[in-house]
Please model this.
Amino acid sequence: MAENIYTKRYSERAMDEVRPMIAKVGVVPSADGSAIFETGKTKAIAVVRGPRTLHPQHMQNAQTGILRVNYGMMPFSVEDRIRPGPNRRSEEISKVTEWALSSVVDLSGFPNTVVDVFIQIPQADAGTRVAGINAAAMALAHAGIPMKEMVSAIGVGKIDKSLVVDLDKYEDSLFHDGEGSTDIPVVVTSRTKEIALLQLDGKISIPEFKETIEMAKKSCEKILEVQMNALKEVGKNE
Model:
């Protein structure tokens, strides 16, 4: 069984196949912008507040507004209950998400303000940071925040000798010859196709790495289509 997983995924997905996706915009009516993005059993909800005046005043930037991101997993999002409140992992994901989104968000027209993005994970089955980024990008667009282009995110990686797209929790926890799977979260911009974020956890050769990046870009095209369809759909209803 363990040997077969690398040539045929237990989920029966192709190696380059993303889990089924669901995207909706405008899920929190009281927010300036909101969205939900699901991939398989992983679900992310993003809410945008702002632009609004930044306090305290000494943190303000007279040249531009600033973007703040807060990412968190709900206590019962996984089988083992998570302790409420921030931790090192959530702070790290908040910051890298902020970096990725800041590459496309333009707040130069909103000096001395802040745009807050809150991402919550009510259900997790791996890939939570990329699902959160996909939801946040849609929520920002829904809020009318100026963006140079959209971003889409996906996790790619390696299990034994096979390169795969969108690892779930089971695949992410696989070990072979004493080593775990390799996970590479990637964020790609919609128009220029630039890499807005890339992280790597595990081992991979340079040729394999280049191939996974191409797999990520192709997958992000499919994700972008789902994101844009969700934004168009809410536009019809507003």
Notes: The helical segments are 88-102, 128-142, 169-172, 206-237. The radius of gyration is 18 Å.
